[in-house]
Design a protein that fits this description.
Its main location: cytoplasm. With 126 residues, this protein is of the alpha+beta class. Helix content is 41%, strand content 23%.
Length: 126
């Protein structure tokens, strides 16, 4: 259907914008992956690394505002993550993972989803 195609286009646009905002604020090695062909629960993943709990909380606050401005509903609360190593925001069509370096190295999400199309990748010098 025409509306479904438009929705996917809008979702990818929001995912790319969110990834850019994350990279601008504090996220390092930020990537956005299109997993729609290989995932049964979401279409896109955004993965980023932060160095501290304060950065993690700051990104969560920014995302709360960004998602609200784009009328994106979340399936989990975005305030006060209890886990210092890994927080996520489930937006249905996309999921945002904010990880400390240790968790990102341990779980290797990019390796798990290696068949995914990369739709955003933060430049190496950022």
């Amino acid at each position: 259907m025409e509306g479904e195609k438009l929705m996917k286009y809008d979702t990818q646009k929001i995912v790319t914008e969110a990834a850019e905002k994350i990279a601008e604020q504090a996220g390092k090695k930020t990537v956005a992956l299109n997993v729609s062909a290989i995932s049964g629960y979401t279409d896109y993943l955004i993965i980023t690394t932060v160095q501290s709990h304060a950065q993690l909380q700051g990104l969560m606050n920014m995302l709360d505002d960004f998602l609200a401005a784009h009328d994106v509903q979340t399936r989990n609360p975005t305030k006060r993550p209890k886990d210092d190593q890994w927080a996520y925001v489930d937006c249905g069509d996309f999921v945002i993972h904010i990880m400390r370096p240790e968790a990102r190295t341990f779980y290797e999400l990019e390796r798990l989803w290696h068949e995914a199309e990369v739709v955003y990748s933060q430049s190496a010098d950022a």
